[in-house]
Amino acid sequence: MFRRIREMLHKIWDSLRITSRNGALPKAAPSVEEAILPYDPEELTIHPNELKYMIDSGRDFVLLDVREEWEYQLVHIEGAVSIPLGELPKRFGELSPVDEIVVYCHHGMRSLDAAYLLQQLGFKSVLSVVGGIDRWASEIDESLQRY
To answer: Which of 105, 118, 130, 133 is catalytic?
Structure first.
């Protein structure tokens, strides 16, 4: 994730350097700290037992699986929408920014990246499942295949 942020910041810096006469950043540009922080992963996470409670209580939300299609075909949580992380920047329009979205992947890293991306795109309520479907299968639904 930090590699992607660093690459994005380098692209921004390069584009500003080209358009700026003296190579200095314009005053409106955020500092590196402002561009990356505040980012607290804990604010974007939900534990499997909390997700189970949301499902059992009939709460209205979108369950988003950001694993690759072959992973989704292998095993997924019932009712999940599949949009692989690599396709999310192009397909985020399939989601509504007003919906509550819970994202999961295999172990929770890609889903955290997806939650952060969606938050940056203006989605207000996005959470990532800690431990992903692997933790879900070990703690909540042991009938699911683990890989």
So the answer is: 105
